[in-house]
Amino acid sequence: MAAVPLAGRVTDAAHILSPQEQATLSARLEKLEQKTQHQLVVVTVPSLGGRDVAEYTRDLANSWGIGRKGYNDGVVLLIAPKERKVRIAVGYGLEKRLSDGACQQIINREMLPSFRKGDLPGGIAAGTDALIARLE
C-alpha cells in the first residue's frame, strides 16, 4: 500500500514544510526516540486518493513498520491538506498513554487553530510538541 515512500522521521510528500522546518521536526523526533525508544513520524500526503484517513494512516504505519516489533509503540501523525484531514495513528503499545480521546484533543486544541489561520507548519509543530510531551 505504501502510496508514499518513507523519507525519514518527517515525510513531507505534500510539500508543506521548509527544509529548515523539516530538519527541526526531525531532530526533535530523533531526540524523542533516543530518550523513549518510541517512534513518532510526521507525514504529509498530497491526497488520500479517496481512502478513509484512519485506514490510510494505519496502512501506512504498518507498511512502513513504525514502532518496535513486539512493543507496537509507533505513532504516525498524518496531514492531508487537500482533504483537510488530520489523523494520529497509535500502536497498541501506546494506547494507554495516547488514547483516541487524547489524540483528538491534540488535533482540536493544538493543530486546528493554526490550520484554520492557514499556518500548516505551525499546526504540525504544535501537534508534534503535544505528542512528544505525552510520550516523554
Automatic annotation (TrEMBL):
It comes from the Bacteria. Residues 10-133 form the TPM domain. InterPro entries: TPM_dom. It holds the Pfam family TPM_phosphatase. This is TPM domain-containing protein.
